[in-house]
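Q: What would this complex look like in 3D?
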Amino acid sequence: MAVILIADDEVRIRRLVADFLKRDGHTMLEASNGEEAIRLIEEHGEIELAILDVMMPEQDGFSVLRHIREQELTAKLPVMMLTARAEELDQLHGLQSGADDYVTKPFSPLVLCARVKNLLLRAGKSEDSNAHKFGELDIDEIRHEVRLNGEDIGLTPKEYELMIYFKNNRGIALSREKILNAVWGYDYFGDLRTVDTHIKKLRAKLGEYGSKIETVRGYGYRFEV
Amino acid sequence: MAVILIADDEVRIRRLVADFLKRDGHTMLEASNGEEAIRLIEEHGEIELAILDVMMPEQDGFSVLRHIREQELTAKLPVMMLTARAEELDQLHGLQSGADDYVTKPFSPLVLCARVKNLLLRAGKSEDSNAHKFGELDIDEIRHEVRLNGEDIGLTPKEYELMIYFKNNRGIALSREKILNAVWGYDYFGDLRTVDTHIKKLRAKLGEYGSKIETVRGYGYRFEV
DNA sequence: TTAATATGTTCACCAAATATTCAAAATACT
DNA sequence: AGTATTTTGAATATTTGGTGAACATATTAA
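A: Here is my prediction, written as structure tokens for the whole assembly.
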């Protein structure tokens, strides 16, 4: 739905962000340092959002951001900053950097996706509805609740995020590892079986729709509309 | 409900103001400098309110204001000035600049919205009711008070603004961050827990209606009609 | 059928989020 | 300036949720 640049020197992070945003239908461009980021932004006229890591070789995120804001053509480009530490966050605030949003590492990919959605909405680039209805199952992201036959089923935070993840990936088999990385964050190293426990609870709360979360034996789970 | 121009060289501020006023149903036009502001005002005959930053490239806010007042067609246009410093405020007063209202940066978006509403009311352009009644809970923006069973419950300024924010966003889950940005101002970076404290007090004063402010665990709060 | 492996289920302990209280700091009022 | 009020976030209490071990059950392979 949009062309997005991710600039970070860590391949792992780039891949992670790119993968998730690709799945939301975005076209991803990657840069491994600040210089490359600037080059891509200037060459491609169609970039609609830039995600910049603060710490990068050649030119750091602040420097790239400043450059973006100085150029007439890119001055209005929505920019999201990735910061590793609280101090950098302070710096962001203190300098009135002009970033539109910031996310501290480590982040949950889902949270990042949600914020990207938000930024694009603000920029008037996106139009998808935040409410999904599958039969009598309502996933309402505005109210931040899931209803069955009109009744809030009272999901806990993790259950809710799990639900959103499934909703965004319906019909796709998801390994426990993927789920853990998406919902718990990429640097979470807990037991894979924890996923099962949450699936169990989510299934129970979904009632008749519990069976919509299918077990993919030997792999993971899949949410079927 | 009205066509409003926001002129400021900082994208962030323009976005912020535009977002909030759009949500109140206004149509927003944006200009990033004084020259552009004048051009838009002359081209669009239907602008009903102009919000001008004092510090802008090309032509500063005072200059734009003077231009507006000099032209027969726009002389009566309500104008709100945004000033960054107290000195500029002095200048505004001292020069009898002819602005209808002024807001100092940093401002709370809600305060700005309220003042815009006021200006439009004065100009006879707006007609929406400023009083909301939910059962025995009266939110009266004219009298600037909230009544329970007809009795003013004596909200403090922050509590009142919080209440208004909730009223304007009922049924929507609001993160602490959003609340802080909206009620405390866009550049306030205090403790998120502060929100809890104010919620606590507001809930107490709302009595039986306190429970209408629901906790959305792991996210924030939501006001239910 | 049996063994091996994977998933389902339960539960007690631990972690995290929120509620509440409070006193210092900021602000407004006189 | 002095007083009263409001705001704030630290400290503490309470509530709620997350976690993974343990055991049960189901599936698959041999």
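A: To summarize the key features: Chain A touches chain B through 16 residues (CB under 8 Å). The radius of gyration of chain A is 19 Å.
Q: Very helpful, thank you.
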